[in-house]
């Protein structure tokens, strides 16, 4: 037995199965209304204020490059672009032309250089265009839309009492909403841009208070936002910068009707940005419905790509052999005192394997959509702190883990 310690290694298949019927947070989110109380807005009859959305001035070093040099740079970063009039990528933070308050927050993070998606997405977003950006998880998409959001917000009139947000970010899960909020806080604090995260499975009171105090950025899961809109705790009349983050995952989770409802409440001449790790047909359809004259950037192949920093070992085996192989790997890994994430296809398998490992003395916990939010937070906390170094997750839960894991 490795250094995880633990009890007996006997396999007790008769261990009682306790089914949980907790409603998961996104189930709650999905069920909390489809926005039937929200009336469609006839935008053609509405008087809307003009707004500023193009803040981009190409750096002179970028202007001086030949087309060939731009092509070479894009190729070296695996940047592929499509659409009319795509701006050239930048090569450094300085070349993006951010104001000093943004540069200071970037320096505070100690980032050496922009990631490929940032190099191309910043000029695209800063020039006020509708943007589709596809890049793998962990590639730095959040500040690709969050930093341009700061400039956008600072160029708009101040919020008046009763105004809703200027920037709205839709995200599939609470974990992601909170992570995006943390990034916005890091980079927005210096210019006093306020934000809040609105998600299901948590008390509404504090969220309502934030909304009513006035926030420039709202990061929300779709169901809870609809709830807040229907109960008139906020409104989207001031939204001119809309981000759909993890669009593919939101569609996988069945949020399309809610997303459509929400978008119908936002003025059509807004700037819309869509971020996704993959680019399947249903995401393409959503983009063509919501974005105008869009420009697109893909990093890496147009197909889903694996992260080259991760060594992948594929073992082909029968179902029957799986558990023995798992234990063999755990034995080896535990002697290195490392943390282990096990992804499985279904909630049921997650629970089964967790039980199997625990009975066998392994410090394993599971996380998936049928767990209450409080329990999910607790499990993640135990894993991060190393008290329970084995985490079994369904892949829906995995997106929210992605960045938490990188910060372990
Ligand atoms: P994604 O949304 O593409 O999955 P994130 O935006 O969450 O990725 O970024 C993943 C991690 O990389 C975060 O911890 C973020 O702070 C960090 N990061 C972002 N941009 C840079 C950069 N230019 N250099 C180094 N780290 C970065
Ligand atoms: Mg992300």
TrEMBL record:
Domain Helicase C-terminal: residue ranges: 325-408
Subcellular localization(s) per the UniProt record: Nucleus
Claim: Nucleus is one of the keywords in the record: yes
Chief localisation class: nucleus
Gene Ontology terms for molecular function: ATP binding; hydrolase activity; nucleic acid binding; RNA helicase activity
Residue span(s) of domain Helicase ATP-binding: 122-297
EC number annotated for this UniProt entry: 3.6.4.13
Assigned GO CC terms: nucleus
Domain DEAD-box RNA helicase Q: 91-119
Gene3D superfamilies per record: P-loop containing nucleotide triphosphate hydrolases
Top enzyme category: hydrolase
InterPro entries listed in its UniProt record: DEAD/DEAH_box_helicase_dom (IPR011545), Helicase_ATP-bd (IPR014001), Helicase_C-like (IPR001650), P-loop_NTPase (IPR027417), RNA-helicase_DEAD-box_CS (IPR000629), RNA_helicase_DEAD_Q_motif (IPR014014)
Residue numbers covered by motif Q motif: 91-119
Family: Belongs to the DEAD box helicase family.
The protein's name in its UniProt record: RNA helicase
Species annotation: Pisolithus tinctorius Marx 270
């Amino acid at each position: 037995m490795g250094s995880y310690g633990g009890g007996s290694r006997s396999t007790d298949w008769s261990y009682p199965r306790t089914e949980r019927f907790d409603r998961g947070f996104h189930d709650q989110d999905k069920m909390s209304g489809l926005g039937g109380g929200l009336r469609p807005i006839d935008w053609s009859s509405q008087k809307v204020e003009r707004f500023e959305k193009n803040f981009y001035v190409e750096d002179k070093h970028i202007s001086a490059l030949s087309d060939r040099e731009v092509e070479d740079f894009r190729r070296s970063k695996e940047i592929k672009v499509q659409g009319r009039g795509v701006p050239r990528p930048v090569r450094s933070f300085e070349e993006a032309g951010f104001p000093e308050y943004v540069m200071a927050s970037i320096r505070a993070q100690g980032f050496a250089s922009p990631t490929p998606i940032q190099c191309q997405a910043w000029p695209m977003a800063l020039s006020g265009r509708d943007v589709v950006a596809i890049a793998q998880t962990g590639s730095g998409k959040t500040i690709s839309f969050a930093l341009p959001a700061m400039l956008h917000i600072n160029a708009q009139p101040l919020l008046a009492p009763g105004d809703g947000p200027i920037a709205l970010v839709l995200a599939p899960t609470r974990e992601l909403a909170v992570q995006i909020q943390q990034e916005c806080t890091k980079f927005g604090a210096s210019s006093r841009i306020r934000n809040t995260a609105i998600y299901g499975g948590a008390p509404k009171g504090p969220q309502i208070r934030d909304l009513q105090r006035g926030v420039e950025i709202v990061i929300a899961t779709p169901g809870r936002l609809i709830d807040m809109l229907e109960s008139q705790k906020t409104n989207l009349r001031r939204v001119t910068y809309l981000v759909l983050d993890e669009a593919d995952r939101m569609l996988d989770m069945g949020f399309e009707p809610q997303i459509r409802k929400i978008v119908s409440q936002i003025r059509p001449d807004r700037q819309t940005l869509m971020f996704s790790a993959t680019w399947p047909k249903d995401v393409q359809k959503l983009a063509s419905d919501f974005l105008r004259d869009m420009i697109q950037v893909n990093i890496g192949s147009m197909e889903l790509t694996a992260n080259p920093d991760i060594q992948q070992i594929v073992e082909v085996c029968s179902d029957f052999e799986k558990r023995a192989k798992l234990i063999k790997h755990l034995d080896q890994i535990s002697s290195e005192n490392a943390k282990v994430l096990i992804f499985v296809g279904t909630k049921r398998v997650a629970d089964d394997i967790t039980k199997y490992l625990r009975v066998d003395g392994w410090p394993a916990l599971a996380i998936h959509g049928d767990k209450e939010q409080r329990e999910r937070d607790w499990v993640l906390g135990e894993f991060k702190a190393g008290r329970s170094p084995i985490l079994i997750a369904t892949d829906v839960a995995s997106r929210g883990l992605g960045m938490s894991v990188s910060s372990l």
